[in-house]
């Protein structure tokens, strides 16, 4: 047990050894959702560019206001029009989004205006500056609005459009090679023979990599021989920035991935104090980062979520971020402790408590589908009813 690397140490080792593996490219903004920004973006203009009205109403100079005073309307300003300076002692009819005329500093919404023949009175004392959105309220010229490493979301597309940007510089999409291993595995679509199971990790890893915003360069399968493993790795090396594999990293003589890595590349880490996911391997092959995930499907899932996702993020140029976790009280007790950090698949009940799925085998995947996230139980920690533990929803990955 003493040779297992602690969860946090494994995370920091992997993050520290990783670096950006892709170049940059200018891309039209409308193709940029999900891409990683390669340079800080500073606002080239102020937003809004000018003081403008937040309401349909009347613009006036605050110092002209008096209870009962009759104002005439000296101009009408719709959004998009260029206003004239406000005539002294008058008000301007103004609409939401229209520029404030020079000389006005306050807008009164039309519901608070009293029409008296062809004049207007504003009997409630306005606040000076009310209902005016000042120039630069949202963004000032030169303000940094996105930072290198940020992922572009639909909200950013709106933000950058409001700055008039048509193109931005992003990182090229990271190409991830996937290798699955095992004589017992067949691809979906083929009939199952005695002793065989379907290869579920290949499709799951492809989907996880795609969901994380990367591109699967190739997904290959190798039978349990060193030759097949090495040949597949060489093919993946020729088309990938990073390689992930599943299976073949434990101690059995049919587990070839780790042994091939020892001859082909440099091993950085093997075996972590995490359940499920113990025999994780981190290596590099001819400069290409490699992460060997354990083959049990839930071990593959957990190690992808925590370790592969982090490695791929750094290699893609993204600023790595921990998935959000929330303290949630356990709805059960477990006095037995283990010497590994554990990621129990749990659901949150109507009472707000976390309940562990009854099936926690690392070979079982339905349990993860029927759960909402992980409850992170630190090594050597008993679980006590009503005590809180970090809950990490799957939606955060
Ligand atoms: N003597 C020991 N045996 C094992 C240990 C150990 O410490 N000592 N660790 C166990 C742990 S923990 C895990 S996790 C597994 C990991 O083993 P491998 O990464 O070498 O994975 P395999 O042996 O190749 O496969 C494990 C399991 O998963 C199934 N599998 C593999 N690939 C796929 C796939 N693509 N799709 C679906 N299922 C897959 C495979 O059939 C096995 O049942 O080792 C333990 N053993
Ligand atoms: O710790 Mo192994 O990863 O599941 O069963």
UniProtKB/TrEMBL annotation:
Record-level GO BP terms: Mo-molybdopterin cofactor biosynthetic process
State the UniProt keywords alphabetically.
Magnesium, Metal-binding, Molybdenum, Molybdenum cofactor biosynthesis, Transferase
Known cofactor(s): Mg(2+)
Which SUPFAM superfamilies does the UniProt record give? Answer: MoeA C-terminal domain-like (SSF63867), MoeA N-terminal region -like (SSF63882), Molybdenum cofactor biosynthesis proteins (SSF53218)
Entry's Pfam families? MoCF_biosynth (PF00994), MoeA_C (PF03454), MoeA_N (PF03453)
Q: Does the keyword Calcium apply?
A: no
Coiled-coil region list: none
What cellular-component terms does GO give this entry?
Answer: cytosol
Its pathway is: Cofactor biosynthesis; molybdopterin biosynthesis
This protein's superkingdom? Bacteria
List each copy of the MoaB/Mog domain by range. 177-314
Q: Which reaction does it catalyse?
A: adenylyl-molybdopterin + molybdate = Mo-molybdopterin + AMP + H(+)
Q: Which SMART domains does the UniProt entry name for this protein?
A: MoCF_biosynth
Q: What is its EC number?
A: 2.10.1.1
Annotated InterPro entries: MoaB/Mog-like_dom_sf, MoaB/Mog_dom, MoeA-like, MoeA_C_domain_IV, MoeA_C_domain_IV_sf, MoeA_linker/N, MoeA_linker/N_sf
The molecular function terms in GO held by this entry are: metal ion binding; molybdopterin molybdotransferase activity
What is its EC class? transferase
What does this chain do? Catalyzes the insertion of molybdate into adenylated molybdopterin with the concomitant release of AMP.
Per the record, the similarity remark reads: Belongs to the MoeA family.
Spell out the protein name for this chain.
Molybdopterin molybdenumtransferase
Gene source species: Marinomonas algarum
């Amino acid at each position: 047990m003493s040779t297992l690397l602690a969860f946090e140490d494994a995370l920091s080792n992997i993050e520290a050894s990783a670096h950006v593996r892709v170049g940059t490219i200018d891309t039209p903004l409308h193709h940029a959702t999900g891409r990683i920004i390669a340079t800080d973006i500073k606002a080239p203009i102020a937003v809004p560019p000018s003081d403008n009205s937040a309401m349909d109403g009347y613009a006036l100079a605050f110092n002209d206001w008096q209870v009962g005073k009759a104002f005439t309307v000296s101009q009408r300003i719709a959004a998009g029009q260029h206003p004239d300076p406000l005539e002294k002692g008058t008000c301007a009819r103004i609409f939401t989004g229209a520029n404030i005329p020079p000389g006005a500093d306050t807008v009164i919404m039309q519901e608070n205006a009293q029409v008296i023949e062809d004049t207007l009175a504003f009997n409630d004392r306005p606040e000076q500056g009310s209902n005016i959105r000042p120039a630069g309220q949202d963004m000032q010229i030169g303000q940094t609005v996105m930072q290198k490493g940020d992922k572009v979301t639909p909200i950013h597309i709106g933000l950058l459009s409001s700055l008039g940007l048509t193109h931005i510089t992003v990182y090229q999409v990271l190409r991830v090679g996937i290798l699955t291993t095992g004589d017992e595995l067949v691809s979906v679509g083929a009939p199952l023979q005695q002793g065989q199971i379907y290869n579920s990790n290949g499709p799951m890893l492809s989907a996880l990599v795609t969901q994380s915003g990367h591109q699967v360069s190739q997904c290959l399968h190798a039978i349990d021989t060193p030759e097949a493993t090495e040949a597949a790795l060489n093919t993946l090396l020729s088309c990938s920035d990073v390689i992930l594999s599943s299976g073949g990293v434990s101690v059995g003589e049919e587990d070839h991935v780790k042994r091939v890595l020892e001859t082909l590349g440099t091993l950085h880490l093997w075996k972590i104090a995490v359940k499920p996911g113990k025999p994780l391997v981190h290596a590099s092959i001819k400069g290409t980062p490699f992460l060997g995930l354990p083959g049990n499907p839930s071990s593959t899932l957990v190690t992808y979520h925590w370790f592969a996702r982090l490695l791929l993020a750094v290699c893609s140029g993204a600023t790595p971020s921990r998935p959000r976790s929330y303290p949630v009280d356990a709805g059960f007790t477990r006095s037995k402790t283990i010497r590994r950090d554990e990621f129990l698949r749990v659901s949150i009940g109507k009472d707000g408590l976390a309940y562990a799925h009854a099936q926690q085998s690392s070979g079982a995947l339905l349990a993860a589908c029927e759960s909402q996230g992980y409850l992170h139980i630190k090594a050597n920690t008993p679980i006590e009813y009503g005590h809180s533990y970090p809950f990490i929803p799957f939606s955060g990955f």
